[in-house]
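Translate sequence into structure tokens.
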Amino acid sequence: MNVRLKYIAVLVIVALVGVFAYQSYWLVQLYHTMSEQMDNSIQEAMRVADLKEVFLRLKSIEEKGPHGMMDVSAGVGEDGSIIAKSVTTTQVTVDGEKLEQKTVEVLRSSPQPDSDSIKSEEAFMKMLEDQISVEELAAMIQQGLHLGIDRFEGTRYEKFDTLLTAGLQQLGLSGDHQLLCIKTDTVYRHATTGYLPSSRARHFVYNWTDYGRYELTIEPTTGLVLREMTGILTASGLIVLLLGLAYYFLIRTIIRQRTLDEMKTDFTNNITHELKTPIAVAYAANDALLNFGGQTDEAKQRHYLTLCRQQLERLSGMVEQILSMSMERRRRFKLNIEPINLSELLQPVIEQQQLKADKPVTITTHIEPEDLTVQADRAHLSNILNNLIDNAIKYSPNEAHVEIDASSTAISVTDHGMGIAADKLPHIYDKFYRVPTGDLHDVKGYGLGLFYVKTMVEKHGWSIDVSSTKGEGTTFTIIFL
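Result follows.
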């Protein structure tokens, strides 16, 4: 991996980390926002339940007949504070005489800053522009209603609990809870059967007046918030995953392209050397015949001509393999499938390999049955076997012993040569790949043979398997499917 590729990999990793960090930060902020919204919704559910409970009592009082009068008003003072006034008029009997008794309750919020001596109309318009002030005004009006209704009928704690439970269920909070209704002289407690608040329980307080409040205890709403975020979390996870996969395939493609470029460079160097060698040998033999009296000595003449023929055959074999690679890539390439007697096909292949070998070669065959036929393309099956046997001979030091076994289901070629290391086996079918041999280059080739073999085997609809032990030998098995 060169320096440029390292920089690209580092930039990709930094980009992924940055995207992941930003996504995480955004999701955490969203979680806090939704948690806050959930808390506000719970507070609002308590307020709405209290308002419904007040109106239920008001309706009950109306049904029982007149008991008095109640007037609730609200406004804004000159100092910008919100003022709510509750005037309750009740009838009392004193010494047989009916009298009216008025009770006035005034609620005032804190003065607004920088609001000295402003007109009430201006203060009211300013309040309308402020959402918080409007909410505070509504809350004080509700408290004013409480002050008036409470003088006629006390709070119905059980009804409030029922209304609050329904409101919480609408928010998706159907779990256990505990409710305390605390008044100056009364404490009402209700809890779901068997519920004991944990140390992580959340507490919410709603003050309906200065002398009364509700306290709600529920377990954390984390699970509910996360369930509501399921879609967002899933989408974010998929985006990060897709980005990761995209970057992974990008880096892998770059590495493969670089490896392919290196392999093509190696191939060019190898094929140049391979082509120059037979040309040089044939040229030298021909020069000896022409200039050194080789034509007068029949033995030398035959020797030099044999050398020329061998080198030309070698060149022809190289060209044939390269052309086979080109043919294999054509879209319209088709095999000429026909029944082939395997024994008849193997005989000239074995003779050719023994003839051109530069070392003692022993090839034994075991074909069962003897007249075994295979449905294949004759030329390509011959090339497949030629490549496998040629490799078995080349990678056998000093003397080659090759065994060929064939049956109706498979054919295998086994040698007892140097073998292939286990970590190299997955790459032996790659185009231009050659098993590294350190600084030694005594085995010639340019990495196309096994690529061609695997390609043609798969085009026949077969499969190929290899097993090898370093220093003991290798077996290639073609399985007929």
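Note: The radius of gyration is 48 Å.
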